[in-house]
Amino acid sequence: MRRGIPLIVVMALVMILLAIPVVQATAVSKVEASGQSSSYRNINLTWELAGPAVEGDGFHIMFSKSPFANASNATLHSTVFTGPTTALAQPVLGEWYDDCQSSTGDGDWVMVFRGENGSAVVPAGTVAIQCDLTGMPAGEEVFLAIWSFDSHLISDDLSEVVTATSTAVDELPPDADTRPVWFAIGSIALSLVVLLAVLGWKERTAQGRSAMLYVAPALMALALLTFYPVGYGIVLSFTDANQSALGEQSFNGLDNYVEVFGSAGFLRVLGFTLLWTVVNVFAHVGIGLALAMALQGRVKGKVAYRTILLLPWAIPSYITVLIWRGIFQYDGLFNGLLGTQIDILGLPVPAAAAVIVVNIWLGFPFMMMVISGALQTIPGDIYEAAEVDGVSTVSQFRHLTLPMLKPAIVPVALLGFIWTFNMFNVIYLMTDGGPNLWFGEPGSTDILITYVYDVAFRRGLYGVAAAWSVVIFLILLWFSATYMKKTNATGAVV
Amino acid sequence: MGANEVMAIILALLIIIPGCIGAGDGTNGDGAGGAGDGAGGGELITLVVWSTFEADSLEDEVFLDAIATFDAQHPSIAIDVSNRPFMQAADSFRVAAQGGEAPDLMRFASDQLGQVGAMRVDGFPLLEDLRPHLTPIQRNIYDAQALSSMRVGGDLLALPASFDCVSLIYNADIFAAEGVEPPNANWSWQQMLEAADALSHGNQVGLSVPLKDPYRWLAFQRGFGGELFAANGVPTLDSNGSAAALEAWLALDQSNGGMVPTGTSIDTMKNHFREREAAMIIDGPWNWATYSQARINVAQAPLPMVNSSGERISPMVTYKGWSVSKQSLHKEEAVELALWLSSPEVQKQFALETWTLPTAVSVQSDSEVIDDPVLSGFLGQAEYGFPAPTTREMSMVWDPLSAAIEQVYAGKMSAEEALSKANQQLLEEIDG
Amino acid sequence: MSDLAIRWFIPLELRILSGMSLLSCALLLVVLLFDYLRGDYDSMLIHWLGMLALSVMILTSIDHTEEGRTKRRDMGLITSGITLACGITGLFIRGQEYLLVDLWAALVLLIPGLSGLYLLSSPVVSRWVDSTLERAEAEAGLARNRLLLPKWQAGLKHVVLLHVVAVVMIPVLWIIDVAISPGDALQGGTLFSSPTGEHFSNILGGENFWRWARNSVIVSIGTTILGLCLAIPAGYAFSRYRFKGRGAMMFTFLLVQMFPGIIILVPYFMVMKSLGLLNTAIGLILAYSVTALPLCVWMLKGFFDTVPKELEEAALLDGCSQFGVFYRIILPLSLPAIAVTALFSFLAAWNEFLLALTFNTSDEMFTLPVGLASYISATDAAWGDFAAMSLLVAIPVVLLFIVFQKFLIEGLTAGSVKG
To answer: Least packed by Cβ within 10 Å: which of A112, A191, A408, B318?
Structure first.
């Protein structure tokens, strides 16, 4: 942080200038401006002096979008001083696009020196100066003039006003092309229509045909919005896409997958993801089922209970997760209530337990609601019959309730599995995958999805991240297929 | 049947409402994304600005005031301000930019610029190099370090409007009550430790700092003679003095015989201070208002000197400023607005009203600013600070460094070993 | 007949005791976990002992065979005593500085201990144990059981529920505390000291909140309606009809949820841009409906499955049209499912953050969650306003739930079937 120094230099410069005997400022004899330079918002300005400049001469470069006869109606672009250049630095050419060169008449153009405040300094004896002026309006006529002054800073000598137009146009990146997307969406929609039509045509019954019509809107909405992104993600996983060359990726075969499977900690993060998912889903369904059963029938304050138990779902998880993080902090409520001294979020196993507990807390109300809803469809008379037959409560539950709940629980549990597997927020906000005891590996509470985020957005390796995503996709695909086969979830009531 | 009626109503709504919404939205479908109509003269230009100020905060108010002023002065420019949540702002900018819908103006922090600056879509960067847009006079509004902190690979990607750094903040009442000499500008690390020890008793902590926060540790690395990157940009997490810095830092933990309670996080530290349980903390000016609201006699001193190295503990200084999108169709106007938002007038207002630290030379030496003890204190601290490098590498430092701190904290590795492993990891990630 | 009454009669006390002990055992598992976390191995030992005693107590109280009743009763009394002793020792072992948890752990042991001593020494139990019950007494006892047992069971149920409510409410109370405390501290300070409404008036007084709320309401209601519109027919078709590609189609609904969303944000954005849906309510409604579809379709399919096919066939025979069957029979019977699905769709839209942020390049259509997130900045956050707004965000959901609750009341279904 250097404050004030430029000011000091200016003052020093002024002192030096004042020490020199009074001379008339060297007049500007000719000014030329050209907007043909190659760079954007740039105008080249050259001015020649009536005689060699002496120390103390200074030149303000003034510009305006409208003609001016008085310097006070124009804007100061920069200043060129005449003075000793020994202690000053010569900037790199093009460093700020505002290179100034000076000539003493021998035909050689020399880079000017720069004072600390960026002012150009030229040696005495200079007869011509040319500057690339930055910050000029583009594509518009600009009026320019040199306002020269002498060492007493009293002269008011404005040169002729010249005009130029900077012609270089702004280089815009190509507009993001939506045609391939249109093409993709169009072909998805078209093939879906054809597929449904063919399937419907093959159906023999009117029912089968109307089924196509019933399913079509939902399927169409799904396909239009999500097929292209997912397909894009899959394609991306076979390319070397990374943040410094997006749009220019090329296929690199299975390299990304080799990297994924070969990456240190792959099995560890996979293991924790599975643990996280399985524990959460079982707890969600178990607790949800228990609470739904407990709140079934005549219970005092049922609405109040249900409403309170709904709160973890109703309050935005963004804040509840942060509150839980506060609770688990070292001086937080958890340690306070228990009188323990555990740095929960700082130790691998407690941190893992904590994120799981929080996600269970967040997720059980939904399961409770679903199961509560499902319980309503069980006709009450079945229980009455069972009661009369002396069937015990336990076997009523096992042989009546559970089978009746199965059609509702099975798909929801599967979706719960998929969601939990891909649950990003809780871990991201609670621990961000930490504590991380490994170098270049996922942290101890990272699950696959949070690690994918790291790979993509912190390290910019989009191709590799896409490969991780495809791995997640395949795991879930395999699991869902197996699960559905086992539970016969797609079975229809016919 | 009540249920049937409900169903009938729902079914009726099913048909009506989507239609209404569709009709209602047809009218205001366009207007965003910076892609307004051509730049022809006289037409209204819309600039889309993404800010990241905390909603409804004082900063947000000052910012919106500044926007309103600009708006009033430029009848041909309409400004569409959108307040993006800070945590996700950079991500959502990247997505929008890849989709060709980047805002014209976006507020970035200097430590985010390295990564955004390294991005290329179809060979084009996402942010405009502002150098051709600025006259030397405009450039020289800002202090040299602020300006260079916004440069990535030579390109100037943002105009610095403010900076952040941490410093030593203490509760003057606690020092006075216990008769301990309060911190001064020439304190040594040893003196500070002694005072902290003297002030630690019962529930009270002499010094509270989040020991696992790599950002604060970097100040110590400097203090003990280490540095984050060598002059040629090669990471040097394991440089001379770094290991000593990490050891001294973690020795502060209670479990290692220090006075900082185990598991202290940034939130915990703030709490300690607010509840008058901490005499000293290391924090930035942004929480000053919170502390003074809690009626604490807050005071500030520069971080101390380390005798063994002869260096000062120097915090990392990050800058926040305004970037112009490469996709913007109205770059001249966007730059004009960026210049206004980071102009001395606006900076001064920010400084005096919200303790936002200024980057404009004239504001830094403004008498009203200097008369404010908080501003001048932090400006003084910043003189001993070091700017956050704006490189892609900088954004990669955090993960390995945190891992190293965790390793040493858990007692699994020596500081030297952990830092050299972290550095190795960082090198690998930079290459690959 | 008289023998039967005597043979059937089991004193209520034993049933109560076994239930209570079982609950205590379950709670003791939590107590033991806490002991382990505190490294308090003395207490742990005592709690193990208490658990052992309780287990024996359960065993003695669920075995009702005639032989050995005396022995089991005595055993029950002894274990009650041990439980009681464990509870008291557990409290004393912590010395003066016991916490709320210790008190709670002690109660977990003290209550079954004391109850055991009291209940097992009651006259009815003694007579039953001695097999000296008269017929009239046994009959009266049976009647009493029928009357009181459900009450006791309900009582135990409430104890369990209250524990769950406590766990649910702790973070919620905290949020309330942050929302009504002055300043912006996320933690620390005493609970509910110096309450203030400043955060609520900040939020409600600003125009932002109302704009976000309006957007959220439009988007969420739109999502609910569109989601149901799409999901009900599809779910019905999947449930009732067999057709080619049915399994594959059902699987397709799940498929898209399996791919991590964050990695495909850019192509998703491009789709929305191509369709001209950026910065529109319709865009968000569509996106959220699609997100909610898999669950809605699958859940509705599951519920439609539980509606007996015979009802439908009967109605068809009665001359009802296909739509009539669907409207008059399936829909009313599936109201609970539709209520849950609607609530789910609503919440999916109401609480979604990432897409609402990404698909809005201008903040005109920002929804409440995005607004909420903008209270957190780089270095600090307005936690007070943040918490107040979170609560405000939750209120409509709770109200909506209370409305939908109507559909979750049992009897409705049974009534419809009969009528």
So the answer is: A191
